[in-house]
Amino acid sequence: MTTMIKDVEHFTIFRDKEHCVNQIATRLLKNGDIIAVFNEERFPFHHDSGQTVMTRSSDGGKTWSEPKVVLPWSETTGNWDCGICETSDGTLIINYTLTGFFKRGQRNLQPSWSSGPITKEWGDWSWAFKTQGWLGTYVIKSKDGGETWGQPIPVNVRPLKHGGCRCGVWELPDGGLLMGLYGRIRGYGEEGEGESTRSALMRSDDGGDNWEYYSTLGYDPASIIDYEEPGLVRLKDGRLVCFMRTHVNPTSDAKNMVMIVSEDDGFSWTPPKWTNIWGFPPELIALQDGRYLMVYGYRKPPYGTRGIISEDGVTWDVKNEFIIREGGLPDYSDKAKPVSSLGGSVGEQGYDAGRIDPNHPGIYQHIGYPSVVQNHDGSIACSYHEWTDDPKPLQYLRCTRFRV
């Protein structure tokens, strides 16, 4: 039976006049506020080299505070893929990925293959696409509700070379903290070196000061399937359920999400099981009525953000899928943009200035990345990003409130 949602309301969280803002992560605090962190890009397109910004809502997602920069970018570093949580003692923890955002150290002898970004504001950063590198995974902690933050704490992700974040940390009943990451053992980058991406859990038993590798969530030794951006939820019976985004190599084509289950607090997992649900990346929460909700982005026509309800947390079926927000792509852009966040030349179909083809949208397909909470009054707030319809489209943040 198809799930019906009601009392649907859409609100704008934040839009910047010059930069893209995206990949929001939210959690419900014990005091009833929704706290959120997101990426502010240093460019008017997605590049994974920006800064982490925080905002909060005290009315269930209708209005939001003036955003505050928590982790600023510098000339040589940026941060992205932030998540947030509140532990049982009231500590706030932000986890994030640090990237080296390098200009050329040597004077180039030829023009760059990349055609951008070259702007009056930032000059020629066209080489940054080729020299950008992941520097590590970190956490910062606040003991005063986010007013002040401690020094960055490095996360030991070894034997991974790097660990990309998506969701915030999850706290177990015994006080242990789990952080879901995706990365690779041989390669430092997100792609290449003939190795597919795996997902894994890091664990901390001292409140987030020290971390180590705890378990593998999904890995394909044939290096065909990528398992990325895990989303976890704890069931009433204590089991953990995790969904992961997937891609297949060498095409990088997105496939359906997979599901795994743990009966020992995340130390071991069932093999990945393919579901009939297409979309990514996932986030899951337990609802007050005992059911479970998963939300995810939908990056093909008609685009948008979707959700699914499960009665028991282990049985999920696309027939229960519902639309939270449809669309999110602009119709037109009067300025060309790079092919992707990894750079590349413009001028290919769908990436140049002009009418945007939803079947070949290039970087404009980057919508969604939803995060969801259930407020104390039972209403649900799902936050995500989409593109404006301005002549120069920018990613911005929205929130949809509804009930199920």
UniProtKB/TrEMBL annotation:
Key words, A-Z: Hydrolase
Amino-acid biosynthesis recorded as keyword: no
The keyword Nucleotidyltransferase belongs to this UniProt entry's keyword annotation: no
Recorded GO MF terms: hydrolase activity
Stored InterPro entries: Sialidase, Sialidase_sf
PANTHER family: BNR/ASP-BOX REPEAT FAMILY PROTEIN, BNR_ASP-BOX REPEAT FAMILY PROTEIN
Protein name: Glycoside hydrolase
Source organism per UniProt: Mesorhizobium liriopis
